[in-house]
Design a protein that fits this description.
Number of helices: 8
Structural class: mainly alpha
Order of helices and strands: HHHHHHHH
């Protein structure tokens, strides 16, 4: 695929995914993974997981992963364009939803919609974790690290950056 077609494909898919990214960028990571790793091979699973880890460790919102994916696929300009393609549609949708929320405050349909979105968000975030794990686990040791990190992240208040640093240290030593 030529670079212009790759850029157009990435940007159009990110724009569509942004509209269903309820819960943030991590909710659609399985679809981004499928696009850039499985379907087109623009990144490996390990490279994708590294981009996610870097976006988690960097100060700022989790959506920075889209800029890293775009930069990896097509350089710095595509990185910026990918971030805009992912943020702009969902920002417009959020603005319109906020206006509708103000107009329909207290209505049954709005309460039902909000109640229905919570479990969807949890499921999408869990699917993201599963996809990232399957893309990076290569041995029993890395599987154990993934399980221990998931357990500690859900049962303690330890900052996830420490898990990333610990994984990096183990990776450097092995």
């Amino acid at each position: 695929m030529d670079p212009l077609s790759a850029a157009a494909t990435l940007l159009s898919k990110l724009a569509v995914l942004s509209l269903v990214s309820i819960g943030g960028a991590h909710a659609v990571l399985p679809d981004v993974y499928r696009l850039v790793v499985t379907e087109h091979g623009w990144m490996t699973g390990t490279e994708f997981a590294t981009a996610v880890a870097l976006s988690q460790a960097a100060p700022g919102p989790n959506v920075l992963v889209m800029a890293l994916v775009g930069q990896y696929v097509g350089g710095p300009a595509l990185g910026v364009a990918a971030l805009v393609a992912f943020c702009l549609p969902s920002s417009v949708l959020a603005y319109l939803a906020a206006r509708a929320d103000l107009r329909a405050r207290g209505s049954r349909w709005l309460r039902a919609a909000k109640d229905g979105l919570a479990p969807i968000t949890v499921g999408l975030v869990l699917a993201s974790g599963f996809i990232l794990t399957t893309g990076t686990v290569r041995s029993a040791a890395t599987f154990a690290i993934a399980i221990a990190s998931a357990f500690l992240a859900t049962t303690t208040r330890i900052n996830p950056v420490w898990f990333i640093a610990g994984g990096a240290l183990v990776g450097a030593l092995t």
